[in-house]
Prior knowledge:
Elements: E1 14-18, E2 26-32, E3 35-44, E4 58-65, H1 77-80, H2 85-99, H3 104-107, E5 111-120, H4 125-145, H5 152-155, E6 160-168, E7 171-174, H6 178-181, E8 186-193, E9 198-205, H7 212-237
Parallel strand pairs: 4-5
Antiparallel strand pairs: 1-2, 2-3, 3-5, 6-7, 6-8, 8-9
Helix pairs in contact: 2-4, 4-7
Pfam families: RNase_PH, RNase_PH_C
Subunit structure: Homohexameric ring arranged as a trimer of dimers.
GO molecular function, one term: tRNA nucleotidyltransferase activity
Amino acid sequence: MRPSGRKTDQMRQVSFERNISKHAEGSCLVKFGDTHVLCTASLEEKTPPWLRNSGKGWVTAEYGMLPRATGERMKREAAAGKQGGRTQEIQRLIGRSLRAVIDLEALGERQITVDCDVIQADGGTRTAAITGGWIALHDCLKWMESRNMIKLDRVLKDHVAAISCGIFAGQPVIDLDYLEDSAAETDANFVMTGAGGIVEVQGTAEGKPFSREELLSLLDLAANGTQELVALQKQAIG
């Protein structure tokens, strides 16, 4: 039995609230159960210096956790003067995931930054950030299309969503919350497109190695879960 009482293939309740920010070109508050992440997409009419005059744009991401996103207050990384390795790794993952479904040439020489700020954490913050970040990015691109800056269907090639899966108490389960994540024998994150393509897989055994069969069972769970998330994204954007 999972601590939450969920079935092995049952995700937490997922919701998307769009237009949560007055100023951002695109924004979404995403909730995976008790994990809540505010995603905002901001447009700049310039590219990073290394892309200047290339004819290509760029999509990047930044990630952070508010001090009381967890059970005990954490120091802000800004106060420490540098980002931690975990933060850097997660924001690079978010950026790679979103760029996987963007035509950077069709975007033009512009940059979109997707900021993902964890308001409340209960496991799966990176997967929630990717899934909600796609909606914020979509709405930013829609804002651009309404101003005749781009054609949305040329720039945005597909949906992208992410979900965690793992081996908990000897069973493959989907969408781990903190209690499961902290005690899992195997912890993995899967990023997949609406067409079912795999963007990235992160998997780690905590002690006992996992088998090929267990990996495939986690992949099957993730494929079904990401398709469910894509369906919710489509419903959210109407």
